[in-house]
Every structure is written in structure tokens, then in C-alpha cells.
Design a protein that fits this description.
Elements lengths: L2 H22 L7 H38 L5 H32 L3 H12 L11 H18 L4 H11 L1
Length: 166
Amino acid sequence: MPYAERTVRAMYRTAPAFLALLLAACGDEITPEQRTKRLEARRTACITEALQQRAQSQLAQLDTMMRQQGGNVPDIVRAPHTFAQVYAAYADVKAHEAAYLDSAFQADSKQDSIAYLQSAGKFRVSPPSEGSVEENVARLYAGDFNASREYADHACNKLVEDQEKR
């Protein structure tokens, strides 16, 4: 079974469980598990925003270089620029999705959680075609996200650690 198909099937299997967990997180009393889920949603939103900002900065640098070259841009520069454009677009979509999911977990009412969850769904990335630039971008992004998540001194991990202590 192709990677993309497995990913989509896994998403549809986990969506009902995710929704149940999300809705359970609303209300007056939250369990330790719900608190952990809220903090993880906050961490994910923070990391995806950091990746989005980094991608936009890198793309801006390449844009400047492209403008300085005028119309005489060699392919060796054009290919990384195209990759950076796709990466920045992907990072933007992932950051929006994560921000809405974070809002869904932090919401006080089930209605708000559902509304945020529906908004997050509008930013869900479709599985890319095998061997495409988009697939390579998704793979690199996942690696960047995981590296940020595992780096204890990342600002987002410090933020969540501080919130865990409260």
C-alpha cells in the first residue's frame, strides 16, 4: 500500500478518537491527560509557527538573491528557490492547522472546539504524489519538526515546560 494511502487511512481511523479527546478536554475540570494534550497542542502550534517564520525568512533571502541576479538566474539557484517556495507554503498551511488545533484544545466550550477543529480541517495537507517536490518538502518538514520537538532547549519546549510547572 502506498505511503500516501496509508497516511490517509490512518487519519480517518484516528479522527473520531481525536474528536472525542478534544471534546473531553472542554469543561470545568480537566484531567492530567487532557492537560498534557493541551500542552502538546500548544507546543506543536509554537513549533510550527517557528518553522513557518524560518521558512519565510529563508525564502525572502532567496527572493533577494533572485532579484539581484535579474533575468540571468542559473538553474542551480532556481531549483532551491522553488523548493523554498513550496516549503514556505507547506509550513504556512501546517502552522495554520496547528494554531486552530491548539485553539480547539484550549477552548472552554464544545461548540468552540468543534468550530476550531473544522477550521483546522480546512488547512489539512493532502498527501503528496510520490517522488514530487511536495513529498520531499513534507519529509524535510517532518524532520525539522521532530528535531525541534526533541531539542530540549528549543524556545517552544521551554515555553511548555514553564506552563507545565503552573
